[in-house]
Automatic annotation (TrEMBL):
UniProt GO MF annotations: peptidyl-prolyl cis-trans isomerase activity
Protein name: Putative peptide maturation system protein
Pfam families reported in the protein's UniProt record: Rotamase_2
Domain of life: Bacteria
Domain PpiC: 247-291
Amino acid sequence: MTYGPMLADAVGLLSSGRPERGLEGFRAAYPQARTRLVAQREEFDGSLHHALLIKDGDGATISLSWCADRALPWPLRGVHRAGEHLLLRVNGIETPVARAIACLDFIWDESALADRLVADSLVREELEETREPLSDAALQEAMDAFRRARGLLTGEATRAWMERNRISHQELEELVALEAAVAALRSRVAAGRVEDWFAEHGGELDVARVARAVFVTEPAVPDAAGFLHVVERAFADGSAHPGEVFATLRRGDLDEEVAERIFAAPPGTIIGPLPAEGGHLLVKVLAVEPAVLDETVRDLVERRIFSEWIEERRNSAKIEWFWGVAERTAGR
């Protein structure tokens, strides 16, 4: 790669004052390089500082930044105000980020929150390099889908939701645009791979439609015809936990042994009692259906491929948690 002209153009881009406006043109001029524009709002004075990261075909990275005359001096860049460490204030009671994470520490064994935070960072990293502009029509379509998914079917309901979540209209548009960008990235990652993945792993998406209930004490197994009556009576007298009775299960979401028993059973079979959180599970198999690559399953396959892609990136990522002590966070 010839760096001279590219670096000159990069300096021109950064010194323009609005480098985000010229980024697409720069990428079009130098398609052999992956570029990422990093913006940092300086807590000290509120100024916005940009840097450009340029990766060439050999994996090397050039980091380029530009500072205007009389801008915030370099020694003060990155200085934090005390308020930056606050996550929440309720009736004057402040919750620092470190305390919030410590309060959530009980869920680390499941790692769901940690995984989602890391995944979000990895996705945003990719979008900063490859995100494509969203047209007004596409943004409106994404906004309509966002509102439908949350039951915000009127302007009044949408405004109430925004007020409850302390979100402005601009912030809502940014949130929706990000959601649409993630969906587009997921489609790009999965492009050309769906059919092969389904051919190899499609059995994981087989469907079992069941009726189920968790009993407080180990129940006698009823006959198939009386299953729902037994569940109804047990719920009425408190010997069964409240919960969803009818469910659709995917083979890959179940324990392997449980999945084998459910998916091998003919309709009408009672499975269990099985150990379950809070008691003993009985399952009545209503129907078993092999997965078919329709629109719903295609979306599921894209999501599985995307999850695998994120996991691959996570395995090679440098992850740092800025809370607690190093020994406690090193393995997170």
